[in-house]
């Protein structure tokens, strides 16, 4: 017997859809995508957390990293969070420079497009390349834009994450809720822009329950909760449980 995942209507108790193992693809991304497809169209729009999960998991085996020194790495995280194909950001340091590490899906967004985004609002930046292809892409964009103040450097120092990455998110009780890297990246942008109402749309029902409960504890200055901002979500749920 082949394994089967059933999607059952809570209202009628009948199957909404079913998926069988045709190719052995029981990955998180495949199951989350099937869950989305089983939901009515209007309901799908209210389950953005599933869409974000699909995007992150699909990119897992092919994701790449890009490094940009910017005047403020917190602002850089917020900026890159709005780019389709970016699945995570981290504020940190290369030497004494504030740097944003951008994790991205190269099938959705190219390195060249990320370089353009980095230069969109910033002129005094450093672009750190890891290979000849990245160096050429960066130099081509600089030539294209005539951005003579932008420096292209080889990444020959270790990137050190900052202890206050996702600065806006850490200012709320959401810091104690297990999140995927893409969820925390998107939520950090929303909070930084004062769009707290949009954060709710990024959370699963279980995450939302925790967020509300932790908000109450946060207001009571309860210090027993565990910081989850940089903890992988699978490990976070183990700690929470």
Written account of the structure:
This protein is of the alpha+beta class and 241 residues long. Helices cover 42% and strands 18% of the residues. It has eleven helices and eight strands. It has helices spanning 28-38, 41-44, 48-58, 73-80, 111-120, 132-145, 167-170, 181-192, 196-199, 205-219, 233-240; strands spanning 4-8, 15-20, 64-69, 86-94, 97-104, 126-129, 151-154, 160-161. Strand 1 and strand 2 (15-20) form a beta hairpin. Helix 1 packs antiparallel against helix 3 (48-58) and helix 5 crosses helix 6. The radius of gyration is 20 Å and the shape is globular. It starts with a strand and ends with a helix. The model has no long low-confidence stretch (mean pLDDT 88).
The 3D shape can be described as globular
Summarize the helix and strand pattern as letters. Answer: EEHHHEHEEHEHEEHHHHH
Q: What is the tally of helical segments? A: 11
Given as residue ranges, the uncertain stretches (5+ residues, pLDDT < 50) are none
Number of strands: 8
Q: Would you tell me the structural class of the helices and strands?
A: alpha+beta
Beta content comes to 15-25%
- Taking the alpha carbons of the first and last residues, their distance comes to 33 Å
Q: Strand order across the biggest sheet?
A: 7-6-3-5-4-8
- Helix content range: 40-55%
Question: What's this entry about, in short?
Answer:
This protein has 241 residues and is α+β, with helices and mostly antiparallel strands. It has helices at residues 28-38, 41-44, 48-58, 73-80, 111-120, 132-145, 167-170, 181-192, 196-199, 205-219, 233-240; strands spanning 4-8, 15-20, 64-69, 86-94, 97-104, 126-129, 151-154, 160-161.
């Amino acid at each position: 017997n082949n394994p089967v995942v059933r999607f059952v209507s809570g209202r009628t108790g009948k199957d909404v859809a079913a998926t069988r193992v045709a190719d052995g693809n029981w990955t998180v991304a495949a199951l989350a995508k099937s869950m989305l497809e089983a939901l009515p169209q209007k309901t799908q729009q209210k389950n953005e957390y599933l869409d974000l999960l699909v995007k992150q998991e699909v990119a897992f085996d092919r994701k790449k990293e890009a490094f940009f020194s910017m005047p403020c790495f917190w602002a850089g995280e917020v900026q890159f969070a709005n780019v389709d194909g970016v699945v995570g950001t981290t504020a940190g340091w290369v030497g004494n420079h504030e740097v944003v590490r951008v994790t991205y899906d190269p099938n959705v967004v190219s390195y060249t497009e990320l370089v353009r985004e980095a230069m969109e609002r910033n002129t005094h930046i450093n672009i750190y390349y890891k290979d000849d292809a990245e160096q050429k892409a960066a130099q081509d964009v600089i030539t294209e834009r005539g951005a003579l103040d932008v420096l292209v450097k080889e990444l020959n120092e270790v990137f050190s994450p900052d202890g206050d990455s996702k600065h806006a998110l850490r200012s709320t009780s959401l810091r104690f809720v297990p999140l995927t890297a893409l969820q925390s990246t998107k939520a950090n942008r929303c909070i930084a822009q004062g769009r707290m109402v949009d954060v709710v749309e990024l959370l699963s029902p279980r995450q939302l329950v925790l967020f509300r409960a932790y908000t109450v504890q946060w207001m009571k200055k309860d210090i027993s909760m565990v910081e989850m901002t940089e903890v992988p979500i699978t490990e976070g749920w183990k700690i929470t449980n």
